[in-house]
Amino acid sequence: MIPRFQEAKLKEELSQSNKVVVLYGARQVGKTTLAKKILKGFSGKILEINADRQPFVEALSSRNLEKLKGLVSGYGLLFVDEAQRIPDIGINLKILHDELPELKILITGSSSLDLANRIKEPLTGRTWTYRLYPVSVGEWQQYTGSNNFELAMKLEEWLLFGMYPEALLFENYERKAQYLQELSGAYLYKDILSLGNIKYPEKLRQLLKLLAFQTGSLVSIHELSNSLGIHRDAVLNYIDLLEKAFVIFRLGGFSHNLRKEVVKMDKIFFYDLGIRNALIENFTPIHSRNDIGQLWENFLIAERRKKMEYQRLYANTYFWRTYTGAELDYLEERGGRLFGYEFKWKSVRKKAPSTWLETYDNALYQLINRDNFLEFVL
Question: Is 0.90 surpassed by the pTM of this model?
Fold first, then answer.
């Protein structure tokens, strides 16, 4: 099993805290596997509940203290998998937490779109929330013991087939592609279709495909609306749902209210490039592709997000672009300073845009390429 950096933190919370521990993440990133590994080290009796088992669901939806006590009687830990599918899960967990403070509670959810709504208000101040992403470069290094040279040799494979645990463990490229094609179908966003009140489900996949082609580019909601033939509000709603299901994420433009800076449109990236490439049905080798710049940018920003989440690094993140053409692929605002980054697949040398340094006198700049990317993601 590939070790996950969240394991130690989750174990610590369950052993030392009496709060409800919530683990979010997309389907198939390894939430259930990680949770069950953690549960093996728990000394007390464990009640494991899958949200597909109706008798348990009825009890956990009842808002009835006696029913809830009857459900967990004799157990030291309650584990609820795919909790977003249980109605009123938040208020029922609140009752358990408040009335049985000695009971440990761990829940997982493959979508925050409904689970967050159901637990946020009832469980205010009663949760610790963690996110699990596809495997990070650091986790792969820990699993394989690879040195920096060996990690760099895996780059092209990661850019094509992504970092989902099962995809990583397939040695055959054809099997990797087959797995990703299956995953990128309705299964990946099943929660959105079942919980998001989608009026035009066929438009969801069409939207994802359009976004896949526009990875790393400024996204026009107006153009997407026209291409799909649906209202812009529907497009915005679908993008929001896809974010909450951990399929995509947005990056906004940075500005200190300077008229010359582009801030009205976002860039959209995929948490996993294997999914992105499956959506456009393109697993062509790197040397034959015309989107290597997009892949490289998406890979680095997604890996950086994993690093920041797992190492508890806090920063505001953006891209930067002016109407005159000056741009930086990515920047972080942290510790009162601005850190600008430009990503190049080829090992070129490039200076920071003069406009960037002139406008923000406390700003730093770094070029990230294949020679130094590990220091950015590890």
Answer: yes
